[in-house]
Design brief:
107 residues; mainly alpha; 51% helix; rod-shaped; three-stranded antiparallel sheet
């Protein structure tokens, strides 16, 4: 005489397992879509800040670049300057320097 599987075993095999698999796939798709749109929003905000800074970059007489932002504008556009205060007036980036110099001066 062959033993039939119990109702619990049949439910687990035919209902719960596919339901859990479908739920897992749905969660993964939702996370992927959320990640994509979050990255798009972050990139757009970063691009807006870059455009805002780029509008204030000018060529200096010595071939370098100057950035004419006030301290308040510097803090608003570049939050990293919260830790390092920006000087008032223009900031000069020398073309002779091989390293990337910060436009925010340490306090």
């Amino acid at each position: 005489m062959k033993l039939l599987p119990s109702l619990r075993a049949r439910l687990l095999r035919h209902v719960i397992a596919p339901l859990a698999l479908t739920w897992l796939v749905g969660v993964m798709i939702a996370l992927s879509v959320a990640h994509y749109f979050t990255q798009q929003a972050f990139d757009r905000a970063l691009l807006d800040d870059a455009y805002a800074v780029a509008t204030h970059v000018r060529h200096a007489e010595d071939g370098g670049l100057t950035l004419g932002l006030t301290a308040a504008a510097c803090l608003r556009v570049m939050p990293a300057c919260v830790r390092r205060r920006c000087r008032r007036g223009t900031r000069r980036i020398s073309p002779k320097s091989n390293s990337r110099t910060s436009i925010c001066a340490p306090s």
